[in-house]
Design goal:
Blueprint (H helix, E strand, L loop, with lengths): L2 H16 L3 H25 L1 H12 L6 H21 L3 H19 L4 H17 L6 H11 L9
Helix pairs in contact: 2-4, 2-6, 3-4, 4-5, 5-6
Length: 155
């Protein structure tokens, strides 16, 4: 194959990839992040005494009592994944999980930065671009846009 033909096919392939809708990219991002945090929440629920022990002895977050921190982490880990899967309040959920990821990275497991940066990258995309068209956020936006008062909701 000639070099020009090869380059031409490369351009065609890149053009096709460029046309992949964001909604198809956002869906696996939402599901991947939701799975990570949901599984963590389920682990906490499976052995609450061990969870409290971890927050008391190992994690030791500043300014937060261990029991409060454990309950807060659990609340975040069982609510935000549901929101992400539904694509509801996606940017809010992403921001909350980004904050939690930062706390985990800074205070709990700083050596796990390669994993945390992957979570942060996915969450930043969702924060900046939203849930995509396959989401309740998009459905709500469409309904509000069609409303007679012309209200616009930025989700």
């Amino acid at each position: 194959m000639s070099r020009l033909r090869f380059l031409g096919r490369g351009r065609v392939a890149i053009s096709a990839i460029d046309r992949v809708p964001y909604a198809l990219l956002a869906l696996p991002l939402r599901l991947a992040v939701a799975t990570v945090f949901w599984n963590s929440g389920m682990t906490k629920l499976a052995d609450w005494n061990a969870t409290l022990s971890l927050f008391t002895d190992e994690y030791q977050l500043p300014l937060l009592r261990p029991a409060f921190a454990a309950n807060l982490a659990l609340a975040i880990e069982i609510t935000t994944p549901v929101l992400l899967v539904l694509g509801l309040l996606t940017r809010v959920a992403a921001l909350v999980l980004l904050g939690m990821t930062a706390v985990i990275e800074i205070f709990v497991y700083p050596q796990a930065w390669p994993t945390h940066i992957q979570w942060a990258a996915m969450l930043l995309v969702l924060l900046c671009r939203g849930a995509g068209n396959f989401s309740l956020d998009a459905l709500i936006q469409r309904i509000w846009t069609r409303s007679p008062t012309g209200l616009r909701l930025m989700l």
